Each structure stands twice: as structure tokens, then as C-alpha cells.
Amino acid sequence: MNATVVACCQLAPVLGDPASNRELTAEAVTHAAARGARVVVLPELVSSGYVFETRDEASACAEAPDGETVTSWRRLSAEHGLVIVGGFCERAAGQVYNSAALVDHGTLRCVYRKAHLWDRERLWFSPGDAAPPVVATRFGRIGVMICYDLEFPEWVRLPALDGAQLLCAPVNWPAAPHPDGERPAEIMKAQADAAVNRMFVAVCDRTGTERGADWVSGSIIIDPDGWPLAAAAQGAGPVTITAACRLDDALSKDVSPLSNVHRDRRPELYQRVAEPVSPAVPSGSSPA
Amino acid sequence: MNATVVACCQLAPVLGDPASNRELTAEAVTHAAARGARVVVLPELVSSGYVFETRDEASACAEAPDGETVTSWRRLSAEHGLVIVGGFCERAAGQVYNSAALVDHGTLRCVYRKAHLWDRERLWFSPGDAAPPVVATRFGRIGVMICYDLEFPEWVRLPALDGAQLLCAPVNWPAAPHPDGERPAEIMKAQADAAVNRMFVAVCDRTGTERGADWVSGSIIIDPDGWPLAAAAQGAGPVTITAACRLDDALSKDVSPLSNVHRDRRPELYQRVAEPVSPAVPSGSSPA
Question: Which of B26, B21, B28, B27 is nearest to B241 (CA)?
Fold first, then answer.
């Protein structure tokens, strides 16, 4: 079985400077391709930076999917025979979205708009309302979601059920304390996302300080058992990580002779997961 | 804020010998109470052992909820002022279930029947069809599920949405290889269960060899950030772990000034999680 080299280019984009960020990403993608990468993941909002203070600031950086940033990724993907998944600040119909594009060998295959907006993002971005896309590529079926989306296992389940062998997730993980000897919590959750679905997960984080904000800088490529294949070293700064992934390993969901993580689901019992949240029952036992 | 001492009594039950197992658990529960425990979790199927080879073997160990095992737990809980959550082999209406009981100060508050049966369990047990119960106790709201259930995040979401501050999970985790320096995969998934819901999770595993089968022996008590508060040492054998848990810490689901892990859910977009599984789309992009 052939392995596909997946790369995550952990970068430090410049806030509000899409032209510089295109140069930065072009250099990193070219370098990753030279190392054998066939699928390259870029950070969330790598076109624009992250720490906006007003909606106008976000809007000023926003581009359509046929704008210069995604066009540059299409060109790079054609030149090097790549799939590229990257985050960009998208303008569409008067709205601004925190989006990710998947381009494959010169063609824009999908744009995904982040559905779960983190903290102040809701002040400038509109949330997406469409499920994470899964795109059939030469390398296998690839799903796309963004950062905080990964912390909603219901959301991760959707591309997995749609057959994603690899989930690519541009992120900007804000730095937060965690106990000595533990990985950052975001990584632990991404490991579980991979394991409960038996699919590969490639997370590309950003790095660098922006308006005083720091980042986990925790790019990681995870196998279908939930174990890291490659990870950015703590405090590594800008770095490209790569891992050879046998994406067909994610086709089988078997975890024992009779157990299968998708077939063993009981969807008929999960109705309440998709219902509007009611307040927690104040006392007594819930119906059992 | 008061802390509640939670204990997990990791035991080595004797296959097919409920009377011996009642002695074993009584001794462990009494010991845990003496250490200050108010909530005590026992392993899955601690009444019967696990490695059955026929349905008749399982059936021969099965007891009703008013049988000797759960009655002994009621007595212990009254004597020591405890909540006890333990797994037992249940007989009901001609079926055999892999069940757990929650008893509180002498009273049986709920019986939960495992909904996600692992591997050969389906050969002797019937699956439960009811959601994990959440019971209001003097110490806080406590949810119950069993072992492989923890690997279905949709299932874990249900008691969390019902306000569980602590999820108690009797388990029998079969030993499996994992990379050096990593925790067993089951633990990583349980950590994510806690973190994505901001609730405490107390897992009580078994230990000992049974018909050649070994166990993770990985009992663990996890805080709402997903970090271990107490864990059985690798290869510890029978041991009781305890942790003082400020269960009210699980009442707030806030993770940043504007973010909340439950309020940020988009249940209206999760419909397909609760639909019968259709085969993965064979090619092209899913609707986006």
C-alpha cells in the first residue's frame, strides 16, 4: 500500500498583510513539496492573521475564493502536483467568514466556512452552516474543518461517516496553561477525534506573537489509532512537519474481530444530540 | 466550595463466583469509605467476571437488581453514607444485560444497561436501549455508562447535556499495545470525553488475568479540563485510587469570555449523527 506524505507548514503570518502572507506560504509549500509532500496543510487565517479588533479590520483582509490567495494556492498545487488545504479570510455576499479552501492540482475543490466560532471571532465572522466537505482526491478522501470545530465530536463524526480518510484542520490554537508532562488539551481532543473514527487527522497550527497573543504552535499529524506520527516540537516556531500516511489504513473501522467503531454506533438512540438544548433537569433522575 | 472524594476500586473479580466477588467488593468499599470516599465506583461486571464462553455461563451469574449483589451495595451505601456505582451481570425478562447500578444511601436509584456492546459481548448480552441516566445525589448530578460506551462521543454528550457533573464508568478495558510514553488509547478518549463536556469522569477498570485475558488496569479520575487527578499506576493490580473533586466546577461550561462548550454547539446541524448510516459517498465531494 502506498503512503502519502502529508505536511503541515506551521507559519507566523503577518496581521493584515495578505501579500506578505502569500509569499510566506508559497515558500513553505514549495519547500514541503521538495520534501515529498503530496498533501500540504496551512494554518487557519494564514492569509490575514488572527487578532482582529474590529469587523472592519477583518473585512479589509477578506478575499473571495477567486482572489489572489486561493489563486496562488491553485497555482502552487498545479506546479507541484499537490493537494493544499489552507485557511483564509473570506468575503462573500457582504459577509466575512473564517474559511478554508481545498485545492487539488490547480482546481478549487471546496470552500468550508467554520461553523463553531471561537470567542471574539463571532464579533467579525459569520458562522458557516454547511457540513465539513469531504473531497475525493488522487490520494484518498480528504475532509476539512477549522480549529474549534475539532472540539465538537458530533461535527467530526460527519466527515468520518462520509468516508474521510484524512481530516485536514487549519487551526490557530491560543496558548493556554496545561499541566507539566501533558500535551496541550487541543491535541488530546484531536487524538480522540482520530481514534474514535479511525481516520488520520492533520492539524496545522500557527506560531509567532500577534498583538500580544501567543499560540500553542502545536501542529500534529495523527494516525487512525490516535497516536502522533509527527508533531512540532514545543516552542519550535515556524516549521514544516511531515509524515508518510497510508491513508487506506483509515478505510477499515474494525477494532476487534466483532467490533467496528462506525458499525457499532446506535444512531437511533442519538436523537437528542441534534435537538435544541434544553436546560439540565433540575433534580431527580432523567428518564432511563 | 466543598470537594467530594471519589474513589475507584480496581479489583480482580473471580469468574463465575458472585459470592466471592461480593466479599471482594465489600472489603474494597469499606476501605474506600475509611479513606473518606463519598462516591465509590466499581468495575464492569464485578459481580461475575468477564470472559464468558457461552450465553449459559453469563446467564448462570446473572442477578436481578434486587438480587444479592446490588442488595449488598445498598447495604454498604447506607452503612457508610455513600453513592456506589458498580457493574453487574443482570437478568431481566429472560434477557441478560451488561448493567450498572447506582445506589445512594441504601436506595437503588437507577440501573443502566450497556448500549454499545464490545466484541463477543453481543453473543451473550442484549444491548440496552435507554440513554445513560443522570441521578441527582447529595454530592451532585452523577451520570452512568459502561466501558465501550465511552468511545461514542454522541453517547457521552447525552448525560453531559442532562447536567451530569461526574460521569461514573465501570469498565473492563482489554489490554492492548500502545506506543511507549503514551497512555492507553481508552484513557486518551476518556480525557477528551471529560474535556469536551467540562465534566468529571471516573473510570473504574478491573485487573487480574482471566482465561488468559489481561486488562489495562487503568482506573482514572479526570477533571473537567481533561487532566488526570488520580490514576492507577501501570501494573498496579488491585488498588483504590481517590481524588477530591469539586463537582461544582463542572457546572460552568465556559472556556473563554465568550465561549462555552455546550452553548457553542450547533445541534441543528448535527441531524446526520442521528440518522442510519449510509455508505460513504464513493467519489466526488459531499454536499458543502
Answer: B28
Q: Which of B115, B256, B258 sits opposite A269 (nearest CB)?
A: B115
CB contact under 8 A, A273 and B191: no
| Burial zone of A229 (CB within 10 Å; 0-12 exposed, 13-18 middle, 19+ buried) | middle
ipTM: 0.95
The 3-state secondary structure of chain A, one letter per residue: CCCEEEEEEEECCCCCCHHHHHHHHHHHHHHHHHCCCCEEECCCCCCCCCCCCCHHHHHHHCECCCCHHHHHHHHHHHHHCCEEEEEEEEEECCEEEEEEEEEECCEEEEEEECCCCCHHHHHCCCCCCCCCCEEEECCEEEEECCHHHHHCHHHHHHHHHCCCCEEEEECCCECCCCCCCCCCHHHHHHHHHHHHHCCEEEEECECCCECCECECCCCEEECCCCCEEEECCCCCCCEEEEEEECHHHHCCCECCCCCECCCCCCHHHCHHHHCCCCCCCCCCCCCC
State the residue range of the domain holding B253. 4-274
Q: How many domains does chain A have?
A: 1
Query: What are A242-260's pLDDT values in tens digits?
Result: 999 999 999 999 999 999 9
B265 and A277 within 8 Å at the Cβ level: the answer is yes
Chain B residue closest in CA terms to A115: B266
Q: CA of A20 to nearest chain B CA: how many angstroms apart?
A: 30
* Mean of per-residue pLDDT scores for chain A: 95
**Is A115's CB within 8 Å of B269's CB?**
yes
| Res B56 pLDDT > 50 | yes
> Which chain A residues have a beta carbon less than 8 Å from that of B265?
116, 152, 154, 277
- Per-residue pLDDT of B131-161, as tens digits, reads 999 999 999 999 999 999 999 999 999 999 9
Q: What is the pTM of this model?
A: 0.96
Answer yes or no: is pLDDT of A69 > 90: yes
Q: Is B284 within a domain?
A: no
Contact A157 B153 (CB under 8 A): yes
Q: Is B114 a catalytic residue?
A: yes
Active-site position among B61, B114, B186, B204: B114
Residue B44 a catalytic site member: yes
In a domain, B181, yes or no: yes
Nearest to A189 among B178, B182, B195 (CB): B195
CATH number for position B205: 3.60.110.10
The pLDDT assigned to B283 comes to: 43
**Residues in A touching B177 (Cβ below 8 Å):** none
Q: Are A16 and A48 in contact (CB under 8 A)?
A: yes
Please confirm, yes or no, whether B8 is among the known catalytic residues.
no
Residue B139 within a domain: yes
| Residue A280 covered by a domain | no
Interface contact flag, A288 B130, Cβ < 8 Å: yes
Average pLDDT, chain B: 95
Chain B residue closest in CA terms to A177: B225
How many angstroms separate the CA of residue A275 from the nearest CA in chain B?
A: 6
- Residues of A belonging to the active site: 44, 114, 147
